[in-house]
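Continuing the batch. This is chain 6 of the set; chains 1 through 5 are on the previous pages. Same settings as before, nothing changed between runs. Recording input and output for traceability.
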Amino acid sequence: MNRIEQDQPIRRILVALDSSPASLAVLQQAVALAVTLKAELLGLFVEDINLVRLAELSFTQEVGLFSATSRRLEIRYVERQLRAQANRVRQALATLAGRAGLHWSFRVARGIIATELLAAASEADLVILGRVGASSRGKGIGSTARTVLLQATQLTLIVHPGVRLQLPYLVIYDGSPVAQKALVAAAQLTPVQNSQWVVLILADTPEASQHLQQEADSNLAAQGITGRYLWWRSMDGPAALRLIRAEGCGLLVLASNGTALDQETIFALLAQVDCPVLLVR
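Output for chain 6:
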């Protein structure tokens, strides 16, 4: 059996922040995870260049929420609001991270949000995103999260406001190198020793399933984790969603390539599950 090599430890966490109440909830989860991992926390606030450019157009108007009156959207007003939002976000990060005794930093960038996130992600081991941003509404995957998930090479954790990362973890395992990497990456996020995960083995035959179970079990045991194993020959999105809900998983761990679930199926799951999702590449 192949023993999984120890992956790079998570030493620096990037968390994408904006002015929404949901972003504060994401920040709280990022702080808690940084404490568990003894990691540095980097907060990033991006001034959306598209909003700035819109304000520079002479015909752009804004309509008051309560007065229903319109006025010209001025660039000075927009920039003042962006600075105020960044200051509030920085203060929230300083308060929470300082209270937890974390080493932290904060950065403001101006540009296309997804582009700036991807650039900053190159300095991090783990990227934490909310499923939707300040400009999104309802369920689904925001455009920024979708772009980062498609292009980032780092571990990416998608979280939901008010839903904390907790046991049990559910891992889909097919023996591929990226699935093996997912076992190690998720183990770093486990807050307690001697925890139990649900491991879904994808294999064509009982013999292949038994081999993969022994492989996964050996590697999890080396990290103080036990597994409860399920065997499926194949999986589609609806079947995966039913299983996730039935197991009540506290973290879904997915390999974003090289497994039975294609990219669109993964995005469909992200839009519907209520638990955090760790994507491993």
